[in-house]
Amino acid sequence: MQIEATTQAPAQTGADTIAVGVFDGEDIAHDVADGLLQRLLDQGEARRAFRHLAVAHADGRRYIVVGLGDRARFDTERARVVAATAHGRARELATSTLCWEVPHHLDDAHVGALVEGTVLAAYRFDRYRNHPDDDGGIERLVVSAHHPIDGPVAYAEVVAAAQNRARDLQNTPSNELTPERLAHRAHELVAEVSGVTLEVRGEEDIAALGMGAFAAVARGSHEEARLIELRYEGPDATGPLLALVGKAVTFDSGGISIKPAMRMSEMKFDMSGGAVVLEAIGAIARLQLPIRVLGVIGATENMPSGHAARPGDIVRAANGTTIEIVNTDAEGRLVLADCLVHAINHGAERIVDLATLTGAVVTTFGSSHAGLWANDDEWARALEAASAASGDLLWRLPLHSDYADAIKGRYADIVNSTENRKAASITAAEFLHRFVGDVPWAHLDIAGTANDTGRSYAGSGGSGYGVRLLVELARRLGQ
Ligand code: BES
Ligand code: MN
Ligand code: ZN
Description:
Elements: E1 2-6, E2 17-23, H1 36-43, E3 53-58, E4 61-69, H2 76-92, E5 97-101, H3 108-121, E6 140-144, H4 150-171, H5 179-192, E7 196-201, H6 203-208, H7 212-218, E8 226-233, E9 242-252, H8 272-286, E10 292-302, E11 313-316, E12 322-325, H9 332-345, E13 350-355, H10 360-365, E14 370-374, H11 377-390, E15 394-396, H12 401-405, E16 414-415, H13 424-433, E17 441-445, H14 467-477
Parallel strand pairs: 1-6, 2-4, 2-5, 5-6, 9-10, 9-13, 12-16, 13-17, 14-15
Antiparallel strand pairs: 3-4, 7-8, 8-10, 11-12, 14-17
Helix pairs in contact: 2-3, 3-4, 4-8, 5-8, 7-9, 8-14, 9-13, 11-14
This protein binds ligand BES, manganese (II) ion and zinc ion.
C-alpha cells in the first residue's frame, strides 16, 4: 500500500473512498452533497458510536461515516481499531484509494495510529495459497488534515511495515524459515538501512564461545543454529547501550521431552522474539533514532534425535553457571541464558528480552498482555510507558527469592524446569534473572501475544507484537 499525507481536502486527493470520523456530541465537519452525511447521522443510519459504520455515495465517490465514540476516550489504540474497521469495509467495497479525513484537534500520535491500524489490517499472508480468498486490496492510503502531517504519517508507516515484516517471518513455516534463513533476512535488512552492522555465527562458534546451554539445544537438529548479532549506531547517540535479545526457536518440538501433537504446528511461532527484535532494529535504523542498539538473536530448532540433549544432561552456560536439563522442552531459557550473557559481555547497559517462553503465560493473560519481569523498577516503568503509548500491552509480575529457590539444582547449580506446575512463567523469569546480574533488564514473555491475538488490526497468525513497543522504547531512550 502506497501512503501519503496531504493538506488537500479529501475530495481533491483522487480517493474513491473517504472515511469521515465523527465523535459523540459532534457533527460532520465538512459535508458533501448539501448535507448528505449529516442527514445520515440525523436519521440514525450513521451513528457516532465507536466503530459504527455507514456508507453513502456522492459526487462519484464513496463515503464511510465512522463512529469514533467519546472524544475523551479516543486513545491511539481506539484509532488503530477504528482504522482497521474502516479499512475492512473499504476493502469489501473494492476501494482502490482510501482517504482518511483526520478529525479536527487530533494530535500526531492519533494520526500515526490511524496509519498503523490501516497498514496492519491490510496485511495478508497468502504467498503459499494458489487461490487466495480475496484479491488485490487497497492500493493507496491518503491521510488528509488541515495541517502538515507528513512526519507522523511517514514514521507510522515505517513502524507498521516493520511489524508486518515480523509477521511474515512468524508466519513462514519452519521448513523455510530456518535459523539460516533468519540470518539471511538479517543480511538483507543490513543492506536496506544505514547504521547497522551484522555478525552471524554458526554452531561451532556458539560452542567455542562457551555457550553450552544454547549449543545443547542446537545439537538435536540438522539445521545449523545461528547466533545473530546486530549493532545499530544512530546519529549523535549518547544514551546507554540498549540490548534487545530475542528467542528464535524456528521450531519447538520439545526435543526428547516431546510435545503432544495437538497444535504443535503453532511452534513455528517460537521464533517470534527474534523476528521482532530483528525488524524493530530495522525500523529504529530507518527512523535514524539517536541511540545505540545491540541485537542478539539465538536461532535454532529444538528437535529430538540421536544427537539431542537428554533429560538429566548437565551443561555449562557462558557465565559458568551449570544447568541440569530436566526438561528439553524448556529450551528457550537455555538459548536466552547464553544470549543474555553475550549481550552483557558486549557492553549492554539496558536489556529487553522477548521470548515465547511459557504456556503458563497464555493461561495467565490469554492473548492480550505479555508478562513483564524486571530487576529494576525504573526500567520496568520505561517499558510500561512505551507499552501504553504503543498499544503493545504488558503487565508486570514479581521476581522473588521464593521463586528463585524453586530452580535450585541438586546435581547442578540450577535446573531448567521444575517438576511441578507452580508459577511456571515466574520460575522461567527467575532462571533468566540468574544471567543478567545487576544490569537493568526486562523480560517479556510473549507466548500469548505473538500470534492469533484476535485484535482487530493484527489478530490472525503472527501478530508482530513487540515491534511497536521496542521502537517506542528506543524513541523515548533517544530523547
Ligand atoms: N515455546 C514453548 C512455550 C509456548 C507454549 C509458547 C505454548 C506458545 C504456546 C516453550 O519452549 C516451552 O515449551 N515451555 C514449556 C516449559 C516447561 C517445560 C517448563 C511450557 O511452558 O510448557
Ligand atoms: Mn519448548
Ligand atoms: Zn519454545
